[in-house]
Structure formats: C-alpha cells, structure tokens
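User: Reviewer 2 asked us to show a designed sequence for the structure in our supplementary figure. I'm pasting the structure tokens here. Could you produce the per-position amino acids so we can include them in the response letter?
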C-alpha cells in the first residue's frame, strides 16, 4: 500500500510540474508581448516617425512600474493567501485589464499618437506595464513556490523561452504586422492573443498555500517583508551582482533598432532580423537550463555574462552595411542573452525564502530593472554624443565589469 501511495504521489507531482511548466511558459509569453512592443517595436516605429534619437531612450520611463513593483508585492503575496487560486486570480485579472488597454491604445491614430499624443502614449504604456508588473509578481511567486530546486534551471529556460517568444510576437512579428495590416489591427490582434492564452491558465488548479500567523498590516509589517531578505550572509555582493549584471545589455541593446533605421533598414528587414536572432535566443535559454543541471550556478553566471559582453562588443565592431556581419552580431548577442538571463533568474529563485517567494523574487527583479532602466534612459544620449560604435563598446565594458562581484560572492557566503 505504501509503494502504491508513493507511486501515485510521484505521478501527481510529475503531472503538477508538467502543467506548471506549461502554464509558466504561457504566462511569461504574455508578459513578453508588451515588453517586445516597448523595447523592440516602438524604438524603430518612433524613429521612422521622426522622433529624435535622444528621446527614444526616454521610453524606459513607461517601464518604471517594473522597477517599483516591490512596493506592492507584499500585498499581492498577502491578499487572497489561503484561498483557492490565490495567485491565479491576480494573474487573470491583470491580463484581462491589459488586453482591454491594448484595445484602447490601438483605437488611436498612430499619426497623432506618435507626435502630438506622445505624452498620452507614455501614460498608456505606463499603465500597461503596471498591469504586467503585478502579473509578474504573482507569476514569479507561483513559480518559486511550486518549482522544485532541481527543476528551476529547466523551469527558467521555459519561462525565458516563453518570454522571448512573447517579445518576438510583440517585437519582430509586430514590426512586420504593422507594415502589412496596420497599427490598429496589430494591437487588437495582440489583445485577442492575451485573452486566448488565459484559457489553459484558467483551468490550472493552483494548490492552496498554508497561511502563517497573520501580522497586522502596517508600515512596519511592510518594511519587515522587504528588509529581512537582505540580512543574510553574502547578500552585499549579491546586491552588487543584481544591480550590475544587466546594465550593459540594457544600455546597449536599446540603440540597435535606431542604428539600423539610420542606415536605411526597413521595418520588414529589422523584423526578420529580430525574429531570427530571437529564435536563436530561445535556443540559448533552453541550453542554459540543461547546462545548469550540471554546472555550478555561479560559474554559469560568470561565463554567460562574459559571453553577453562579447555579444555587445560584436555590435560595436560590426559594419552595418554588411548584412552578414549584422546577422552574426544579432545572433551572437541574443544567444548569449538567453544563456545569461536563465542563469541569473535561476540564482534569484535560489535566494528566495520559503513563504516569501513573491516578495523576495520581486525585490531582486526590481533591482535588476531599476539599475538597467537608469542606463537605458541615457542610452540615446550616449549614442547621439559618441556614435553607435563607441556606444556599444562602452556597453560591452559595462557588462564585463558587472560580473566581477561574482568572483568573490561564493567565497563570501561560505566564510
């Protein structure tokens, strides 16, 4: 009887993990759609519309909710905990509202929205990012809580793959779609996709969480949720790793599309380049998950970060007039990005405390986004001041310098 019960329990666990991985892939795909729109499509579209290069970097202001989502993450963890489908309800509500907002954005004329209505566009994109930042808190909490440690590398590969696939749809595919079917039809198609992807999510039965003794919700309670995470050994160096690891990539990659537009690449050409390179990025993410089953995670973090710096260096040395060189730089950089992203996210999961998954993961993600976002804001000024080649070389140097704390971090946590 005991063997039978254990076998049944193992089968149930395997089935839960399989469904969870599928659901997480869909959730992160949905999050990749608006991010692809913001990071991949709009820089090229606005550059073509005549917006000065210096202002394109300011699109990062619309992504502020991703850097500040830790402020309301304790409430997402708290409200509804102990009830069925706690985090799923946050996810479904946020995604439905985001689909409605895309319908609103698509209803405006692009000729007005990209010039006189640019302020309204930033506001609408800010709201869209707020909804998906909340969506992300709940999704990350669900992933960290339910994924066993042995599957976190693979889980992050599929999450990263889903996110990158969403960025393809919101970025490369959207650039092509805007040229073929127009702005409004493309945005409304994205909205329909968000609703469609909720169908399997709705059918997922999220296990009920244990409810610890409730502390009175107050400012002190809120502060304790955020501070206790950092009062552990080695967290000072981990903090430096988090704030530095993605700044080179964010600082550099934002200017890829404006550079290609400046050298007369069409939307379709840019979209196809982005599609091919992003698919290679999916391969990098999948490979990272397999490698992390055998490699020490801190070694993977350093090695993949160095490859990311090399990818940015390739953009700094490329001759934009030679299509093969551009294709190589795009593929190499995206492959390295897939590797480094999975390594970082897996280690972030490992740092989370039981019972505080949403808050802990969100704080780490916010630090990454906040630091990289600050550098993104000035990326347009850097490219305009020193030229695109020098800008990418500086980005590569930043990416390489950012992995230095990892050399000392493992020793710090064991001393």
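Assistant: Here is a per-position design you can include in the supplement:
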């Amino acid at each position: 009887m005991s063997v039978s019960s254990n076998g049944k329990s193992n089968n149930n666990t395997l089935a839960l993990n399989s469904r969870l991985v599928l659901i997480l892939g869909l959730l992160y795909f949905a999050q990749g759609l608006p991010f692809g729109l913001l990071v991949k499509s709009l820089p090229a579209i606005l550059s073509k519309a005549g917006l000065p290069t210096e202002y394109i970097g300011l699109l990062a202001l619309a992504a502020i909710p991703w850097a500040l989502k830790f402020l309301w993450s304790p409430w997402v963890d708290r409200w509804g905990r102990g009830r069925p489908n706690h985090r799923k309800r946050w996810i479904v509500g946020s995604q439905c509202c985001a689909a409605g907002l895309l319908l609103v954005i698509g209803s405006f004329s692009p000729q007005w929205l990209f010039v006189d209505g640019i302020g309204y566009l930033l506001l609408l994109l800010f709201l869209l990012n707020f909804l998906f930042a909340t969506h992300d808190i709940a999704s990350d909490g669900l992933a960290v809580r339910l994924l066993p440690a042995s599957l976190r590398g693979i889980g992050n590969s599929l999450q990263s793959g889903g996110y990158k696939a969403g960025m393809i749809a919101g970025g490369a595919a959207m650039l092509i779609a805007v040229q073929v079917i127009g702005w409004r039809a493309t945005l409304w198609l994205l909205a329909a996709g968000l609703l469609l992807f909720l169908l399997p999510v709705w059918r997922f039965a999220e296990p009920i969480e244990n409810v610890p003794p409730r502390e009175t919700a107050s400012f002190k309670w809120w502060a304790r949720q955020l501070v206790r995470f950092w009062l552990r050994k080695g967290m000072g160096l981990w903090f430096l790793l988090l704030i530095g690891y993605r700044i080179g990539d964010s600082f550099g990659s934002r200017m890829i599309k404006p550079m290609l537009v400046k050298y007369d690449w069409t939307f379709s050409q840019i979209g196809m380049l982005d599609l091919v390179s992003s698919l290679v990025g999916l391969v990098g993410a999948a490979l990272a998950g397999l490698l992390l089953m055998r490699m020490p995670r801190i070694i993977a973090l350093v090695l993949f970060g160095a490859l990311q710096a090399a990818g940015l260096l390739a953009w700094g040395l490329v001759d934009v007039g030679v299509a093969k060189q551009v294709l190589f730089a795009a593929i190499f950089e995206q492959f390295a990005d897939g590797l480094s992203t999975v390594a970082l996210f897996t280690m972030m999961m490992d740092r989370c405390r039981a019972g505080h998954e949403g808050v802990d993961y969100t704080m780490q993600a916010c630090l990454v986004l906040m630091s990289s976002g600050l550098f993104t804001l000035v990326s347009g000024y850097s490219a305009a001041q020193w030229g695109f080649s020098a800008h990418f070389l500086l980005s590569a140097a930043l990416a390489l310098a950012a992995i230095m704390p990892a050399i000392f971090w493992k020793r710090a946590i064991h001393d």
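For the response letter, you might also mention the following. The chain is about 80% helix and 0% strand. The chain has one domain: 11-206+220-414.
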